[in-house]
Known about the structure:
- A six-stranded mixed β-sheet has the order 1-2-6-3-5-4, with helices on both faces.
- With 505 residues, it is an alpha+beta fold.
- 37% of the residues are buried.
- α14 packs antiparallel against α16.
- This is Cytochrome b-c1 complex subunit 2, mitochondrial.
- Its main location: mitochondrion.
Amino acid sequence: xxxxxxxxxxxxxxxxxxxxxxxxxxxxxxxxxxxxxxxxxxxxxxxxxxxxxxxxxxxxxxxxxxxxxxxxxxxxxxxxxxxxxxxxxxxxxxxxxxxxxxxxxxxxxxxxxxxxxxxxxxxxxxxxxxxxxxxxxxxxxxxxxxxxxxxxxxxxxxxxxxxxxxxxxxxxxxxxxxxxxxxxxxxxxxxxxxxxxxxxxxxxxxxxxxxxxxxxxxxxxxxxxxxxxxxxxxxxxxxxxxxxxxxxxxxxxxxxxxxxxxxxxxxxxxxxxxxxxxxxxxxxxxxxxxxxxxxxxxxxxxxxxxxxxxxxxxxxxxxxxxxxxxxxxxxxxxxxxxxxxxxxxxxxxxxxxxxxxxxxxxxxxxxxxxxxxxxxxxxxxxxxxxxxxxxxxxxxxxxxxxxxxxxxxxxxxxxxxxxxxxxxxxxxxxxxxxxxxxxxxxxxxxxxxxxxxxxxxxxxxxxxxxxxxxxxxxxxxxxxxxxxxxxxxxxxxxxxxxxxxxxxx
Length: 505
């Protein structure tokens, strides 16, 4: 038996080598073998099949070098924004890459839903690329698949996002599909009803995930309206939303003033030209008339279960609270990294202050990280912990005491520098992905009407002082807090107990 198995393996290896040799250029196996023998300190021999890209960008066009040796940032070349006559904003970044990403952001997230409309934005995400503009659902995905592209959709508390990623040269098809999904979806009742089981499955999955469940509960408890709406469809609305409900919602919120088109790896003038025809039927819509979100706080929610762990989160309103205040966003980001954002290296130890404080308080496995939620007119900051039930109280007390020490000025230069570097690294790594870069561009354009280059943002991060961080920390828990706990709550303290020993002065 052993002899037979060895013979089979030998034949398979011979077959693989023959197939590989047939696909490579003459003498390529010999070249490959010699290249493998070259020490890592020396340059590899020239390989004919690895010729550099010979395409040249037009003269006068600024190019982002994708090499890691380039010192210029991708955001330095972002300077093209056009507003169409109907209010649609078109922004682009030419990277001269082989692929393109087109994203349509509609400011129509869950915060704009009324009580009876809860879950509509979630359903819109699921129904994003159903039959629209003369294309059946099958044809939509067949055409995008034929050109090697992909379609995706997402919904947040403030936006519904439609996105296409595909090889360059197929932007006409992608934009046609995206615009039809936004402007003229067919929205047939039977197709909408078919989505109910998928919605129910996603809702159940989120309910079973402690972190997702606590996040939704935090928002529902902290805000009286708007941002308190869940991004998920509530169970009482599953199967009760009709196509006419979706049409009415889209007629109200899917207007030119609330739509932003962002293209990565596209020519700006071509994108504008295509957008003018694709979104020509979109009405401009009235001036922004959004309901102001009110933070109420002071709420405490305990959800007991048979879980072997305790999950808990405590947050409070940030001051100031608006995304339009860039300084507020940067201060919150630095403070979050100063306290700790969780494990960043698998199986590694985190140097964050929260982990150090927790390790001194308990001797069993745990996790602790800072929470930071930013929205256009409000924000939350706080902490999330996971531990064994018997140690939940001591861990929460240790986390709050550590934050109290920061608010009193216990911030070393080394800790502050590390937090700044981590925030800048997060921003820099974010622009490596076209989707993250699109999200950043759209968020700033939607809120401020402009985009701040990343180099400028990083300079502002470097300029943040210890005094500014301390003052920001003092403002966090100066308002009423919100506390949510889930799991085995046998030793979980009440919110008042946590706040009694915390002094911010």
